[in-house]
Design brief:
This protein has 264 residues and is mainly α. It is built from 13 helices and four strands. Strand 1 and strand 2 form a beta hairpin. The mean pLDDT is 80.
Length: 264
């Protein structure tokens, strides 16, 4: 784990030199020796700080500590899940920065965790465009990952259009009290908000899109547009040409492989 540099001597005492960040090492060593520091994640509330998760993932992989590597991946999995139910319970990172999701995309590639990529790209692309653009260059993404993120931005914009209230024409009709239905005006305001925003979050758009409409128009909207489940299922296919089932199978295979290795 450690290497002694024979030329690093301080008052005739060998000095251990490590090619890792002192802060990252402190997180890693604390996770090794303090079982309360890096507990198993919960799919709600606030996730551990991303800086701690990424540091422990890097060093547990470097120094071959499978239990900590698995724990770090579990923390990423609750933030970037493979199920819609998991997404709805998904926590945010404690003390997060705008660049965390871009780093997560890089970690997914560097440490072979492809099943976290769709929602890592989704969270990255759901931020304002200037943040996304800065992240692409700041976190050191490779050319393939940059292309994937750009495809993700375009895919989410397409999904936003398809699940938003786009072409639906709601007729003005008399309500029971004799007043005109105002749903057409609400429709226009919602659509302007969708196309005017500097971010794409189609799952959020769909979850609130019928608020404010009368019962009749709500029924028509619900019947006309794709369900939230269908939107969810399209996310990995549009970005990676892979299904959630395929990615979940990779996740389970990784766990099984680690379980076998732990008994050898």
């Amino acid at each position: 784990m450690f290497e002694l540099n024979p030329h690093s001597i301080d008052k005739e005492v060998p000095v251990v030199e490590l090619s890792v960040s002192a802060i990252d090492l402190s997180f890693f060593l604390k996770a090794l020796h303090d079982t309360s520091f890096f507990r198993q994640p919960t799919p709600s509330g606030v996730a551990a700080p991303f800086s701690i998760i990424s540091a422990i993932l890097r060093l547990s992989d470097k120094y071959d500590v499978p239990c900590l590597r698995r724990r770090a991946i579990e923390h990423l999995e609750v933030v970037y899940p493979t199920s819609l139910k998991g997404w709805d319970l998904s926590p945010r990172f404690e003390s997060s920065t705008p660049f965390d999701h871009g780093v997560a995309v890089k970690l997914a590639n560097d440490f072979n965790i492809p099943w976290i990529r769709p929602m890592a790209v989704y969270r990255l692309a759901s931020q304002p465009f200037d943040v996304v653009l800065a992240s692409l260059f700041r976190v050191g993404l490779c050319e393939d990952d940059m292309g994937m993120c750009i495809r993700g931005i375009r895919a989410l914009r397409t999904l936003q259009f398809s699940c938003g209230i786009v072409t639906l024409s709601l007729p003005r009709k008399l309500m029971s009290q004799g007043a005109l239905c105002t749903c057409q005006d609400i429709l226009k305001a919602k659509w302007n908000a969708i196309i005017g925003g500097d971010f794409d979050d189609p799952l959020a758009v769909y979850s609130v899109k019928t608020e404010g409409f009368c019962m009749s128009c709500t029924t028509r909207i619900t019947e006309t547009f794709a369900s939230r489940r269908e939107v969810w299922d399209r996310i990995p296919t549009m970005i990676f040409n892979e299904s959630w089932d395929t990615l979940e199978a990779l996740r389970r295979a990784s766990i099984d492989k680690e379980d076998v290795s732990s008994y050898m």
